[in-house]
Specification:
globular; alpha+beta; 33% helix; 19 strands; five-stranded mixed beta sheet; four-stranded antiparallel beta sheet
Length: 421
């Protein structure tokens, strides 16, 4: 698919094998960006004898697209595993020279702006790491022609896509030691770690999986890290690196899709279960206890009938909460019940991404909560209170409104469900 249908969609990066500049370019082209957008952008920079192209690559069980860059004196291979120029006779240049090169080129305005921002972000971190003036930063690792082509190509592809929003799952960093122009360094490279400061990342995999170029792209364009929101998926693309990995396919996947509704905040992956067994509390206090636990930040509260010693009937009161409100939830337990102790258990959970949409019924508009994973929609449920209000206005049973709203809600998932069948 190489048409404008790919433009204006939600873009999601899935760097489960890390991310590098060349893999980003290839994945975006594989998902729908015309090759000529990248080829013409690199040509516009005006670097003589620099040649770029694309090729199919098999990595693990997947066939992806590779972005190939060649220049005079180039060593063998370029790509994901060579983002630092390991073993190559890369030509070094400073940030001021790269900035002049970009500003003097006829590159499109948006692509030029994004490329300049990515290079500026890398230069700022390198200047801080090495204690040099910004304009004098020598781009040993990303200043050679290949990485200039990567950043310009990625910026041009993103400018052409004009995504409505960009999200990403946390990038996988890798492990081990790499050889840089400054000597051997542990993974992640200092520049990569600096660029991802404050952002989520996973320390797994072998070798250098996320390069400074890839980290800079994510840092500059991604709005939110986590799973993709509910989407009507339109396309996916695979950008392949140059090496094979034993534990994972060396590909970067991107997803393009039409968002379904307004994305809701992501749910915490880690929660704490707080519970207490109570056999001596007035049952009338149960309702205000539940209200106070929710007010303290609990995500869910429930009561379960149990039998304690001497066959005494009792109630187990449980509350699920994010770790950051644990103290407030425990205080609500002690202040509003007769318990003198609570149990805690840290739990991991998988929560579907959610968004809020509206559907039209004969009784008016009803809000619908849409749930999805990896952009694939699994459910769409009408908000009951909206249905009850609509039923009251129309003088019809609530279940009648719920039935119509449910049918309209499932219609939102039609395209996704057809692709799965």
């Amino acid at each position: 698919m190489k048409s404008k249908i790919a433009q204006g969609l939600h873009l999601h990066f899935d760097p489960c094998s890390g991310i590098a500049g060349d893999m980003t370019v290839a994945a975006l082209v594989d998902a729908g960006v015309p090759e000529k957008v990248v080829l013409e952008a690199v040509k516009a920079v005006g670097i003589e004898r620099l040649k770029v192209g694309f090729e199919k690559r098999k990595r693990g069980a997947f066939v992806g697209l590779g972005f190939r860059v060649e220049w005079p004196g180039k060593g063998h291979g370029h790509g994901h595993d060579h983002g630092h120029g390991h073993g190559h006779a890369h030509e070094h240049r400073d940030y001021a020279a790269i900035r002049r090169l970009l500003r003097g080129s006829p590159l499109g305005a948006e692509a030029k702006r994004l490329a300049e921002r990515i290079f500026a972000r890398i230069a700022e971190e390198e200047a801080a790491l090495h204690g040099v003036a910004l304009d004098k930063v020598a781009f040993h690792e990303v200043g050679a022609w290949d990485s200039i082509a990567d950043i310009v190509g990625a910026a041009a592809a993103l400018a052409w896509l004009e995504p409505s929003a960009i999200t990403s799952t946390p990038p996988v960093l890798g492990s081990g030691v790499i050889h840089t122009a400054h000597g051997p360094m542990p993974v992640p490279a200092p520049a990569t770690a600096a660029l991802l400061r404050g952002l989520p990342a996973l320390a797994e995999g072998e070798g250098e999986l996320t390069t400074p170029t890839g980290a800079a792209i994510l840092a500059m364009v991604v709005r939110e890290f986590g799973g993709p929101p509910p989407l009507r998926l339109v396309a996916q693309g695979f950008g392949a690196g140059t090496r094979e990995h034993a534990d994972r396919p060396n590909v970067l996947r991107v997803l393009l899709g039409q968002p379904v509704g307004r994305a809701l905040p992501g749910a915490a992956d880690e929660v704490v279960l707080v519970a207490a067994n109570i056999d001596d509390m007035n049952p009338q206090l149960a309702e205000p206890l539940m209200a106070e636990l929710f007010a303290a930040g609990a995500l869910d509260v429930w009561f379960s009938p149990i039998t304690m010693k001497k066959s005494r009937p009792a109630t187990e009161i449980s509350a699920l909460c994010p770790p950051n409100v644990l103290a407030e939830v425990e205080r609500a337990f002690f202040a509003n019940s007769s318990t003198i102790g609570v149990r805690r258990q840290v739990m991991q959970r998988t929560v579907l991404a959610r968004s809020l949409a509206k559907v039209k019924t004969a009784y008016g508009y009803v809000r619908v909560k849409v749930a999805a994973r990896e952009g694939e929609i699994f459910g769409a449920t009408p908000e009951f209170e909206d249905c009850r209000k609509a039923a009251g206005r129309a003088g019809v049973p609530v279940r009648q409104v719920v039935a119509e709203a449910s049918a309209a809600a499932w219609a939102l998932t039609g395209a996704s469900r057809k692709r799965r069948s």
